[in-house]
Each structure stands twice: as structure tokens, then as C-alpha cells.
Amino acid sequence: MNPDHPNWFSSVQAPQRIGSSREIDWDHEVDFLVAGFGGAGVSAALRAVEQGLETMVIDKSAGGGATLASGGVLYAGGGTSVQASVGEVDTPDNMFNYLRLETGDIVSEETLRRFCENSAGDLDWLMSHGVQFSGPVWKQKTSYPDVAYFLYHSDNSLLPEYQKHARPAARGHRGVIRKGRSAVDLGGSIFNPLRRACQSLGVGIHTETSVEQLIFSTDEQKVVGVRAWRFPHKSSARKKASRYRRLARVVRWVYPFFLPGAQYVHRLADRMNRMVADLEATHREAVTYRARVGVCISAGGFIFNRQMVEYYCPEFLEGMPLGTPADDGSGIRLGQSVGGVVAHMNRATAWRFVNPPLSWARGIIVNSRGARFVNEMTYGATIGEALVRKAGGRATLLLDGDLVRSAWREIRPTRVLPFQWQLGMLNMLFGMKKFADLPTICRQLGFEQNTLSATLAQVRAVAEGSISEPFGKPDSDVPALNFPLYAIDVSLDTKLLPCAVLTMGGLRVNENTGEVLGEQGEPVGGLYAAGRSAVGIPSNLYMSGLSIADCVFSGLRAADHAASLIKEGTT
């Protein structure tokens, strides 16, 4: 696909092709240029300047990206210093054996093994630049631990089916930060120290600067720079745009995506962002940047480009976009504009968390016919994947009276975080429906009576011990469900229990170097991709913290390869 394609859906332009780099009077010249200043971009820039490369980073917003807006979780293992400090036993082989179950063949075995072997060292590298990680460890299964805990099981490794292949180990390393009992906007614990390190080491940082065109030298057969657009320094238009962006971020922070009605409140933020776009269209000027060694694209995914989502992964369109408006696919389109190829663009991750309260996970989730399709104890992204792929995005959580009473006890504000008890209470107060018998629930919710009857009979048989649990759920977590039953809508588009979605596909890269690959598998000269602009470790199935971990891994990989070219004298 190229910019002439009717489904391009991007402001990214066809590359400017020149003979020699000397043909342009560049506004800025560096060795290594990073386009996108989130988790991957800050890692690439910091590593590059450490390696002696003159480095600059550009970001279309204020920097930080989805990493800054996240819960601040890094998936790390193999025996990290933090794991060792709290008695968590892990090895690279053990981590590999588990992750192979989740990643499938999305990356090669060699790449996944390298990710696991580098994991503890990558965490130490982050800590050497001021990021703080520590215990204590939360040992139970949860979507997110109490804020006093900074290490937890952010995956499926505690479940019996997974323990057959690998010993469980807590790998969700939360950056140490304290914002009361909030679990949102905590990514500054990771991003902000790295940004400060970049500044102290002399990385040039140009924010509110949008890259929309690559510059390709036919003499050198490589990308040699970019053309970007930014507001004139100290212009009134720039001040207005900054203010509107800030207000949009505040709206999304004050009223997070998981609260009911967020899509309506966030329309105010969308309006602010449209005002920014209007200012950009009329007041920005072009700026050129030369990259003597290479350009690294680290501009996120495309979940906020709704046209691209509808084109590539329409089954995820009804979910709640997770990330920032800068996740518009522009990084991916930049790579494609010079012949880079994409892969797995149909892949996204949907987060359907039902624990806490634990009693919800002890209930059953059924599709529109009334049949189960997933182990309800699995990680939220595993449930979300099954929800989309196996149930067409439509599902209902069924509980009985005992589970409902237990759930009320489990979501007391003193026991779980605010977003957890808020969502639990909202759904049990306003989203839960009670049904006295089988014909009534089937008639009102549209289930097939024979199908739901068989499903409930099977659950009761598991609870009685007469059959094994067919989805791998621990038998002790399968109580017999008796009428009256209570139903909660857990579909992809339900309003009271938003299901967050982000995209996982992107540019294909050489897994040893991070270079963007062309149609024949050849590298596109001078061009790298990292983070969610590229296919990476989490592109098959997401685990909490795995995207930030891959951002660090892939950002370091690109910078290391660029530095090796300088040392070898091949640039």
C-alpha cells in the first residue's frame, strides 16, 4: 500500500526522493533521528546517545505517548534483581517456556529467547537511569494489584494449565510512583526518568512536531531524513495548540475510559484535538531533519485512526480505544511509504477483565447462544481475544446469588482500587439483571434454551466432580450455578464495563537489527521501527507490561545496530 491507495487514511505523504543528501539545505542534522517519543522512542534515543551518536527525537505531541498514560507496568523476568529481592524464583528458560505459550510464532524462537535473556539486564538499565522498581509482591491473581505492591503476576502463569509448562513467577514490575490509590496515568514512573536522562545527555527533543514525509536518497539507497511540520517558535498558534492538547489530556485523565459515559465526556477532548488539527493545518511550517545513520520510527499503533481500524481489524472497532490520539498509524504509514511491509494488521488486543471481584471469574461467560467459550480465570486479554474471535464480541457473565453476595464483599473500597470497586458497583447496581428460571433468561437475553441448559448442566457436573472442567479452570473455582441467575453484559461494546482495545500489528522488521523490511525481506536502508509501530513480542497475545517491555527491547535493538554501523564505518 502507498499514499495513492484509496484506503491510505493518513496525512503521511509519498517520500521525497533526492539524489544526494547535499541537495537539501537541512534545518537540523544528527546521526540518529527518532520519530515518536514514547516508551520505544525514549529508549532508542537514550541508548543511541550513550553509544556516542548525536541524537534527536521528534514527537507530534508533548512526548510520553501511551507509555506515559499507562499503569506503569514493565513485564520482566528471568531472575531480575527485584524478583530476587522478594524471593521470586525465575530463569530465562522458565520465562521463555511460559511466553512461548502466549506469543506463538509471532517472533522467532531465537528472538523470544533473546528477549527473555535480556530482560533482567534491560530492567537494570532502566534503573541505572533513575527508574525505580521494587517489591513487595502481590501473589494472587488480579488484573492490577493494590497500589502498595509493585510486583505481581500480570499474566496467566498462576493457572494450572500453564504451570504444566513453566513455574509461575511474578513478572509485572510496576514503576514506583505514588498517586494516592489511582491506577491510571502512572507511566511517568518509567518515562519521566528516561526523559530526564535524555535531556542530561544532550538528546535534542522537539515536541509538537509531526513527521509526515521521509526523504530518500537514490545515491545512497537509504532514508536520509524527514520533513516535519511544526508551529513557529513562540507563535500564538503554538500556544493555543499546546493549551488545547493539555485540556484534552486533563479531560481524559479526570474521567478515565473505564467510567460509564466516558465516550460522551471524551467528546470534549476530541473537540479539543480537532481544534489542534485545525491550527496545525493553517499555521505550521516545514522543517527538515537529516539523519546521517538512520531514522527510527516509534510512533505507536493506529487504534485512534478509526478508518484504519475499520479497514484492518473491524471486529475490534466497538471497543474503547486505549492509547493517545497520536496512535494514528502515521509511523506505520511512514514505513510503508518507502516500501516497508506490514504484518498482523488484523491483530488487536481487547481487555475484558472480570477479576476483581474474584467471584465474577468464578461465574461463567457465555456467548449469544448461551455456550461457554473461555476459561473465566484467565488474564483479561486472553478473555478479550476469545470474546472477539470466538463469540463475535457478544457475551454475558452469569452468576448465582452466592457469587453476587461474595462479589459485594470483595469490592469493598478498602479491599480494591477505586476503578475496580467503581466498575463492580456500577455493574451490579445498574447493569445486572435477575432471572428466576431458564425460559425467562433465554427469552429476554436471546439464548438458545437447549444450549444454556446444557451449559449449566455441564457446570454443575464439574462442581459435583463427575467430569473434568473442559476449559482448564480449577475445579475449585467452578461452583454449581442455581437459579435465580444474575446476568451482566460483558460484550465488547458494553457501556458500563468498557473493554479497552489497542492495535498490535505494524511494520515487519529484521528481528536482529530492528531495520524495516521490504517486500523481498531486504532491509529498507536507514530505517528502523520499534514499539507498536512494528510487529513485536506482544503482537500475538498481550500480557500487562509486555508492550512497554517490548518498547525497551526494540528501542535498544535499533540504537545498538545504528551505533554498530558507526563503529564499523559502514555509514
Please tell me about this protein's structure.
It is built from 18 helices and 22 strands. By secondary structure, it is an alpha/beta fold. The strands form five sheets. Strands 1, 2, 3, 8, 9, 10, 11, 21 and 22 form a nine-stranded mixed sheet that branches. The protein has a four-stranded mixed sheet with strand order 4-7-6-5. Strands 15-16-18-17 form a four-stranded antiparallel sheet. The protein is globular, with a radius of gyration of 24 Å. The mean pLDDT is 94.
Please count the beta strands (DSSP E, at least 2 residues each). 22
Structural class given helices, strands, pairing?
alpha/beta
Mean pLDDT: 94
Q: Are there runs of 5+ residues with pLDDT below 50, and where?
A: none
Number of distinct helices? 18
Biggest sheet descriptor: 9 strands, mixed
Distance between the termini: 29 Å
Q: Judging from the principal axes of the Cα atoms, what is the shape? A: globular
Cα-atom Rg, whole angstroms? 24 Å
What's the topology here?
Elements: E1 16-18, E2 28-35, H1 39-50, E3 55-58, H2 65-69, E4 73-75, H3 81-85, H4 92-103, H5 109-128, E5 137-138, E6 151-152, H6 160-163, E7 172-174, H7 188-200, E8 204-206, E9 209-217, E10 222-230, H8 236-254, H9 262-283, E11 285-297, H10 306-312, E12 320-321, H11 330-337, E13 342-343, E14 348-351, H12 358-362, E15 364-366, H13 380-391, E16 396-400, H14 401-410, H15 418-431, E17 432-435, H16 438-445, H17 449-464, E18 485-489, E19 500-503, E20 506-507, E21 515-517, E22 523-529, H18 546-568
Helix pairs in contact: 1-7, 1-18, 4-5, 5-18, 8-9
